From TrEMBL, chains A, B:
Pathway: Amino-acid biosynthesis; L-lysine biosynthesis via DAP pathway; DL-2,6-diaminopimelate from (S)-tetrahydrodipicolinate: step 1/1. It comes from Atopostipes suicloacalis DSM 15692. InterPro entries: Diaminopimelate_DH_Ddh (IPR010190), Meso-DAP_DH_C (IPR032094), NAD(P)-bd_dom_sf (IPR036291). This is Meso-diaminopimelate D-dehydrogenase. It is an enzyme of class 1 (oxidoreductase). It comes from the Bacteria. The lineage of its organism: Bacteria, Bacillati, Bacillota, Bacilli, Lactobacillales. Residues 120-273 form the Meso-diaminopimelate D-dehydrogenase C-terminal domain. Its EC number is 1.4.1.16.
């Protein structure tokens, strides 16, 4: 069998997740990791190259998985690379996705490439479930919960406060509210009341804990309006307990099929490694990108535009027989 | 807006579920119910006709939802009706689905129709989730649990025993096992040990409870190998407590993304009315069938072959903006 040849662009958490995740897929192989940093400095056994040399691999790679940051990397790397390669990314700046799609789609079409954008779990699997839940139960109410898990963005924001040496921020969903929703009760949901924030902080030696805690709790956009708990811990405890990146969450819909009958659909994720799971979703959609390009179905697509069978290495016939 | 014109074929539980469910969808309208029974005998306010007159509606219906039984109705009605109409069905004889697909597909293609087969929740949403879970977490283990809910087939089988006046059989999943799986523990799963069966029986006046109970518990295929509890109740209690058709279940996958990191994906349903929810899924896929036929994408399809956006009444642009 011809294996699907994969390239990884950007070697952060997600890039490393793709590297390790590809080992689970015998129909795929990793051709190389492409970084803006000197490849020799990357801690990897896989072939690594400078991203500016990537065009040498134009005919050696079927799909590039773009693992850069959503803030500045993907909006630049996506449009540049889709000209030459099929791509998959986990772009997660929700508000900018339509604009990004409109940038990627014409370039992909013109160059006969496939771009699968904004995969992962949110956006990604959660989006897909939100759509299906709403289409099946239009007369109802949707709820999204995130966590318990580390929010990289919030942890970074706390780390930027003067006096903070290390920080991890956990988003914690209201389990009582979740249980009520799953039991069919009516609840008054809004995102802020449905989540609390737990922050674990290692202070610099001379820092003032009272001041740091106040600064965290009053940080606009990130913490204002949320019930936030701040704990100061030692560097040892931080290293032992707060280095991993668990996450998860759920998308629930309560909907009436008739006046008397309630249905509840619940899609939930519990992830010991957020980047590895996001990578796992990217890998499955890389297979979809490959198959779509084989069928000459070029252009940009989101998870909402891709039939499930494209994610699988099995044939439609085998799937119908084994899974339906 | 032009509404999508729907016909219902067969007026049992599922047919009634589609009738009531269509009221939730302002972009659809019910043209008529088609039954093998005299329409005047059906308890409905909707227009009802004899199914043999259905060809008069060839140009007045966009999609027929086939609500007949899977055992004998669908295998006959499907191939006959796909020649003239787009169809959706909830055919659930798992082992026969490939054969049914192969019967429907060429007729649909030849007559430029779309057949969406085997929708509902199992087959249907559960199948789709099994596929996605396995494609994303290939290194793992899948689990399906059904219930707590009424199994129509098992209830019917008990009702056929001499001395039984009324019966309801509940399939009950092992909640302890589910909790262990969701907690990431390794369990020894097989379908029989993961479920018990609860049977509520109203006896005929002269019946022998010991004999009936023995006959239930020793019924091959249905009860042998399952832990089964039998309760004898009064007709009043039966009418008060066991007339509705709740069901549900879940499809779970535990999978390793790397040596150390476990991910758990859980898709679960809790349904006060199994037929109404199945109908709700059928209705969303009827919209998909309509859109696919508008795009001239003819032939037979399962839920595995249909991109999520087809289920929604919103445009791809709106979905990208609002749900992704
Ligand atoms: N859709 C979803 O569900 C979902 C879930 C999680 C994350 N995401 C998205 O995935 C994106 C990537 O996440 P991530 O955790 O992989 O980000 P990250 O670790 O910060 O990596 C981003 C980029 O920064 C560079 N980099 C990484 N480590 C570095 C270091 N030590 N020194 C200098 N540069 C370094 C890498 O590019 P070079 O190798 O080129 O230097 C890498 O591609 C996030 O922006 C987020 O938007 C999406
Ligand atoms: N995929 C899934 O998840 C899923 C879930 C649930 C059910 N299903 C499938 O859906 C199928 C239909 O289920 P259902 O509960 O609607 O079956 P049902 O109530 O037994 O109806 C089946 C057919 O029997 C006829 N019928 C109904 N009531 C009757 C009556 N009182 N007297 C004479 N005939 C009557 C109707 O046809 P006429 O109007 O032409 O007489 C009807 O279409 C099942 O076979 C099952 O396979 C699938």
């Amino acid at each position: 069998m011809n294996k699907i040849k994969i390239g990884i662009v950007g070697y952060g958490n997600l890039g490393q997740g793709v590297e390790v995740g590809l080992k689970n897929h015998p129909d795929m192989e990793l051709v190389g990791i492409f970084s803006r940093r000197d490849p020799k400095t990357l801690d990897t056994q896989s072939p690594a190259y400078l991203v500016q040399d990537i065009l040498d691999f134009k005919d050696k790679i079927d799909v590039l998985i773009l693992c850069g940051g959503s803030k500045t990397d993907i909006p630049k790397q996506g449009p540049a690379l889709i000209e030459h390669f099929n791509t998959v990314d986990a772009y997660d700046t929700h508000a900018e996705i339509p604009e990004y799609f409109n940038k990627m789609n014409p370039i992909a079409e013109k160059n006969q490439k496939v771009a699968v954008i904004a995969t992962g779990w949110d956006p990604g699997l959660f989006s897909m479930n939100r759509l299906m839940q709403e289409a099946i139960l239009p007369n109802g109410q949707s709820y999204t919960f995130w966590g318990r898990g580390v929010s990289q963005g919030h942890s970074d924001a706390v780390r930027r406060i003067k006096g903070v040496k290390e920080a991890a921020q956990y988003t914690v969903p209201d389990e009582m509210m979740i249980n009520k929703i799953l039991a069919g009760e009516t609840v008054d949901y809004n995102q802020k009341d449905a989540h609390t924030r737990e922050v674990y902080v290692v202070l610099e030696e001379d820092a003032n804990p009272t001041k740091v805690e106040k600064e965290i709790k009053e940080m606009p956009n990130y913490f204002v309006g949320y019930q936030t708990g701040v704990s100061f811990i030692s560097e040892e405890e931080f290293k032992a307990e707060h280095q991993s990146m668990p996450h998860g969450g759920r998308v629930i819909r309560q909907g009436k099929t008739s006046k008397d009958a309630l249905s509840i659909i619940d899609f939930s994720l519990s992830l010991e490694s957020n980047p590895e799971f996001t990578a796992a979703v990217n890998i499955a959609y890389a297979r979809a990108a490959y198959k779509l390009s084989q069928e000459e179905k070029y252009g940009a697509r989101t998870v909402l535009d891709i039939a499930p069978h494209y994610l699988s290495s099995k044939s439609r016939e085998d799937l119908m027989r084994d899974l339906l």
